[in-house]
Design brief:
6-stranded mixed β-sheet, 6 helices, 24% strand
């Protein structure tokens, strides 16, 4: 057999190696692009975080600036009512004016009724230093009117049946209760105010809201005067029919006797109502050598165990001292204070006629119909006049 030689032949070059090199180059390029994209994404994230922080800082600064500013510029809630919308807008303008200029409208003391604006530098606050009385009438028994007509009667028990000891077989004694009538009739308290519409629009305060706050106390003052002094055909406590005036109470050191001059059932919750100068004399007595019936501690005075209330002489009268239970007074309003508005009517003020529509004015009427009835026989009064201060 002939010897044969085996030869290994390299495979033909089919381009695979080149393709692999190119694929690896592509992977390297993709890796580089991915690294660049990651870097760019991180830079974008940082930029976003920086922008978000800057926006939050700007928001915080804006909120702080708004809170530090005397005007809250947050928009008011939308109102369907045109009047309320106009009010809010006027309030907003007034606040802006106060914040920017510090100028306010003021009432002129030398102008005719209902006027008017004076361009002065006023603050929006209006201080009221006029006397404010406590509402004594609030301590009375309140019975709403609740019926038709302007007159009515309330039954009053005058005397109770008597209980008698009756022997066996003896005739019983007849004892009926006695009733009287408290007559009530409505009276009308009013307050009428006129001003220009310009004043209502330009003033720093919203007058229709502010006016009830200053008129209300005036109704209280008038009701207090009615309560103590009375009005025509409606006596008050001081001059009520049947009020007890014990002759023994002629000096301030006898004032405690007023408490024992009325029926016992009205003493427990009764109070002494003392005119201010007499109250001062009692305070002096208490500080020097207080008798057993008088105490005065921490500004609270008590006579024979009952509270003492100092009352302005304008209400009670000079030198007057009273004792009684305010619950024996009946306060009967037909309704609460009503407010009526007009810009059309003509209103006469002495010799001046206000033609509201033509003169661009507004009128507000406050009205209360009520009755105050006093049962005089359960109150005691003394007119001490120039009372001595002996104890």
């Amino acid at each position: 057999m002939d010897n044969e030689t085996n030869t290994v032949t390299a495979p033909a070059d089919n381009g695979l190696e080149a393709k692999m090199d190119k694929f690896l180059e592509g992977l390297e390029a993709s890796k580089a692009e991915a690294a660049q994209a990651k870097a760019e994404a991180e830079a974008a994230k940082k930029a976003y975080q920086d922008a978000q922080a800057a926006a939050q800082k700007a928001l915080d600064e804006a909120v702080a600036a708004k809170n530090a500013h005397p005007v809250n510029f947050a928009p008011a809630a939308k109102k369907a009512d045109k009047t309320e919308t106009n009010k809010n807008f006027r309030d907003f303008l007034g606040q802006v004016k106060a914040a920017k200029y510090g100028a306010k409208a003021a009432l002129s003391t030398d102008a005719t009724t209902g006027s008017y604006l004076v361009p002065q530098d006023f603050l929006p606050q209006l201080f009221d230093f006029l006397a404010q009385y406590p509402a004594f009438v609030n301590d009375a028994t309140r019975i709403a009117w609740g019926s038709f007509g302007n007159e009515r009667h309330i039954p009053q028990l005058v005397s109770r049946p008597a209980v008698n000891v009756t022997a066996e077989g003896a005739q019983k004694t007849l004892s009926n209760p006695a009733f009287g009538l408290i007559e009530q009739k409505l009276e009308k308290l009013t307050a009428l105010v006129v001003w220009t519409r310009e004043l209502a629009e330009d003033a720093g305060i919203y007058l229709p809201d502010y006016l009830p706050a200053i008129v209300g106390p005036q109704f209280t003052i008038q009701l207090n005067k009615w309560l103590f002094q009375g009005i025509t055909n409606h006596p008050g406590i001081v001059n009520a029919s049947g009020i007890v005036t014990p002759a023994s109470v002629t000096a301030i050191n006898k004032v405690a006797d007023l408490k024992w001059a009325i029926p016992y059932q009205y003493r427990a919750n009764g109070k002494f109502y003392i005119e201010t100068s007499l109250y001062g004399q009692l305070a002096s007595i208490a500080r020097l050598s207080a008798p057993s019936w008088l105490t005065y501690e921490n500004g609270v005075m008590r006579i024979d165990g009952s509270d003492v209330v100092a009352v302005d002489p304008e209400l009670i009268g000079d030198g007057i001292a009273l004792f009684g239970d305010m619950k024996t007074v009946i306060f009967s309003p037909r309704n609460e204070i009503q407010v009526k508005y007009s810009d059309q009517a003509n209103i006469t003020d002495g010799g001046t006629t206000h033609q509201l529509f033509q003169e661009n004015k507004e009128a507000y009427l406050f009205e209360l119909r009520a009755d105050i009835s006093v049962v005089g026989s359960v109150w005691a009064k003394a007119d001490l006049g120039e009372s001595d201060s002996e104890s």
